[in-house]
Design a protein that fits this description.
Blueprint (H helix, E strand, L loop, with lengths): L1 H16 L7 E4 L2 E4 L4 E3 L3 E7 L5 E9 L7 E6 L4 E5 L9 E8 L5 E11 L6 E9 L1
Parallel strand pairs: 4-10
Antiparallel strand pairs: 1-2, 3-5, 5-8, 6-9, 7-8, 9-10
Length: about 140
Amino acid sequence: MKLLKLSIVALAIGLMSFNSTPVTTHSHLSGTTNTETSIKWTSEELDLGEIAQGKPVSVDFEFKNTGTSPVIIESVQVACGCTTTNYAKTPVLPGEITKVSATYNAAVKGSFRKTVTVKTNAEEMPRTLVIKGTVI
């Protein structure tokens, strides 16, 4: 099964590199965007409010592939060891919705603001997602 998934990913990447359709781009303030691969995030910042110390809390950041080509999550990075992530390792096909899950384990009381940085082939710059709240 794992070999089949890897074969599909390799095929999708191969097909994207041999695509004869010209890439359409739009210029805007943040640079150039490829309209064949584009995504729309449901939310980029989640306020957890008050959470208990030492009890992990998980959140999901969802996005939809609004383009015409598969979207690949290239990397997901967190700012500290108190946050872990999980995300789709396979291409997100046009029209599909996927999520980047983040779990925060609060060790220290007080307010917090943690970031999750997501790099995809659909956005020129990495997207910074934010989890914030207060540990009680």
